[in-house]
Write a structure and sequence with these properties.
Length: 263
């Protein structure tokens, strides 16, 4: 049986991939990663992600949105440009959007306003949302609750929470993207407990490359750069925690990603 994976969150437009992006894509395919969703974080990176996906049909798709770090730059004038991007077939989700009260790089009121605006665009475009939340659980849940039954779906990107967050997100109908955070013995304890209880039909995998290189990789790349080819390493960790075979986990998460993003 061929084991295939989909990386639902890779930042392939990041400058660290500029010199060897084609080689990174080739290594991912060799590792069984047959499709990747390239993340957009502002208008410029969303356009770049869409262009990259357009250049690799069948291998890449993209998201378009404004990360909460950049929420101050989300203005009404930019909404039409995002709407245009969301009309492209290669753009399969709205985001990365949400709230980040840990860094507070944008004022919290601006974060909430940009998040709500993007949820409205997702409803209009009938595309799911690719969600970010850090240290903002209560406001995040309260805003999403107002969109229950209206969204085409939502995935908690780079989910790192424990059981309370898991239960709240399941109640909201969200799916879950699990990264190499699960391989971090220092910080991943709550996630390792929660990951065992994620409903099978809501589970997907991602690297968030070039960030979040799995801490337990051996040998670790000298560059410390994460890349989509390392997704099977994350999958093995998740499968072991859930008491599943790698084959079963790959089949389930790949089917979930295809269904969720309409691939």
């Amino acid at each position: 049986m061929t084991i295939e994976f989909i990386d639902i969150g890779s930042n392939l437009t990041h400058e660290s991939f500029s010199a060897d992006r084609d080689a990174v894509l080739a290594r991912a395919l060799h590792a069984g990663v047959v499709h990747e969703i390239v993340t957009g974080a502002d208008l410029a990176s969303s356009r770049a992600a869409a262009a990259l996906a357009r250049a690799h049909p069948g291998r890449l798709s993209s998201t378009a949105g404004v990360h909460p770090h950049h929420a101050s730059g989300f203005e009404a004038a930019g909404r039409e440009q995002f709407r245009e991007l969301l009309g492209k077939p290669e753009v399969v989700a709205v985001g990365e959007c949400g709230l980040d009260y840990f860094r507070d790089f944008s004022p919290r009121a601006a974060q909430r306003a940009a998040f709500i605006a993007q949820l409205e665009m997702a409803v209009e475009a009938r595309k799911p949302v690719f969600l970010h939340q850090r240290d903002a659980h209560q406001d995040f849940v309260a805003i999403l609750r107002d969109y229950t039954g209206r969204l085409a779906g939502g995935v908690a990107h780079c989910f790192t929470g424990g059981l309370p967050e898991l239960e709240a997100y399941v109640a909201l109908g969200l799916s879950f993207g699990v990264t190499g955070w699960i391989c971090d013995e220092r910080r991943g304890g709550a996630l390792r407990e929660a990951a065992q209880r994620i409903p099978a039909e809501r589970l997907m995998l991602e690297t968030d490359a070039p960030y979040l290189l799995p801490r337990d990789m051996a040998p670790r790349p000298k560059s410390r750069r994460n890349e989509p080819a390392y997704l099977p390493h994350i999958a093995r960790a998740v499968a072991a925690l859930r008491g599943e075979t790698l084959e079963r986990l790959s089949r389930t998460t790949t089917e979930n990603a295809r269904r969720f993003f309409g691939l």
